[in-house]
Design brief:
Layout: E1 2-6, H1 11-22, E2 26-31, E3 40-43, E4 61-64, H2 76-99, E5 106-110, H3 140-158, E6 165-171, E7 173-175, H4 182-191, E8 204-205, E9 207-209, H5 210-222, E10 228-232, E11 238-239, H6 240-251, H7 261-271, H8 276-279, H9 287-291, H10 301-316
Parallel strand pairs: 1-2, 1-4, 2-3, 4-5, 5-6, 6-10, 7-9
Antiparallel strand pairs: 8-11
Helix pairs in contact: 2-3, 6-10
Length: 321
């Protein structure tokens, strides 16, 4: 297959590119600052039509991952950049597909599980899940993230054409052993004794192991009946307190200092980020993947955490690290 990945230079894109190239596929990454890689890199600005559009003509799959990092403070300028980078790049991909003589048969569009409401009473699946933004006392930052998620999906749906199947990936946190990812960040805190409960600890954490994320993408590619929004998350989210306790156990660390919400908010200011990732209850389950027969290799967090710790150690022990 020829697979084109706009915005594929980040952690998720790199995971997919490595897997696709290893399996013999032709991979093209569209990036603002192309660099040497084991796959082809083509420049684009995430907004304008240009030479990059030829890559989509005749491609089998396009996986749009483009979007500015949300690891920042949500002041006005950053909010505008976050929104524009997602909506404009999605519209650009849609225009390129629309003008292609031989458009891709499948468009996998990045989205986020953040689109759902923060809840404790029941999980959010695609059929019965509650979209967020209307909960009582929702922080403005959370409402902004939900607005971005909705605008992101709407931009893709606007560009939909009959001969290209669109799947929107409402993805949870992808846990990878690679340096710089969310698992790496959490693990460093745990090993320093700082990996305790965040806030009250009852908020749910949705996650997916990197192996299952890659397998889910292949599954969606190979199952044409699936279209629309798909939750890409492990089937067993768990409360933050249990999630962190399990991660400490996987690392053999007995103590983790808890962090109350006020301390997290203060720390977020100094670290120039937001606390939504830690404090919002993301109880998201993969209803459509399970219904279609997808089998998870790591449906439970203890086994996933143990495997990721082993893989993390193996990476650190490599001579090139």
């Amino acid at each position: 297959m020829k697979i084109v990945i706009p915005g594929g230079s980040g952690q998720i894109g790199t995971l997919l590119c490595r897997a696709f190239v290893a399996d013999g596929h032709d991979v093209v990454v569209l990036g603002r600052n192309p660099r040497a890689a084991p796959w082809r890199m083509v420049p684009w600005d995430g907004r304008s039509m240009g030479g990059w559009t030829a890559e989509l003509d005749g491609a089998d799959v396009v996986i749009n991952l483009a979007g500015r990092s949300v690891n920042c403070r949500y002041h006005a300028a950053n909010r505008q950049a976050i929104m524009d980078s997602r909506v404009q790049s999605t519209r650009a991909v849609g225009r390129a597909i629309a003008q292609a003589r031989h458009p891709p048969t499948l468009w996998l569009q990045a989205g986020t599980a953040t689109i759902y409401a923060s809840r404790y009473d029941a999980p959010n699946d695609e059929a019965t899940g509650i979209l967020g933004g209307f909960e009582l006392d929702v922080p403005s930052q959370w409402k902004f993230s939900i607005a971005v998620a909705q605008a992101w999906e709407h931009a893709a749906q606007e560009a939909l054409r009959p001969d290209t199947r669109l799947v929107i990936l409402r993805s949870a946190m992808t846990m990878s052993a690679d340096p710089g990812g969310i698992f790496d960040v959490m693990s460093r805190l745990v090993r320093r004794g700082l990996g305790g409960t965040a806030g009250h600890g009852r908020q749910y954490v949705s996650w997916i192991h990197e192996r299952d994320f890659i397998a889910a993408i292949y599954w969606l590619i190979n199952h044409p009946p699936i279209a629309g929004a798909v939750n890409v998350a492990a089937p067993n989210p768990l409360p933050n307190a249990e999630f962190m306790r399990t991660l400490r156990h996987a690392w053999g660390v007995r103590i983790g200092l808890p962090a109350p919400a006020w301390l997290l908010e203060l720390g977020a200011v100094f670290m120039k980020t937001e606390t939504e990732l830690l404090l919002k209850s993301r109880r998201v389950v993969p209803g459509r993947l399970l219904q279609s027969g997808f089998a998870f290799s790591f449906p439970h967090w203890p086994e996933a955490a143990d495997d990721l710790c082993q893989r993390w150690r193996a990476i650190k022990d490599r001579p090139d690290q």
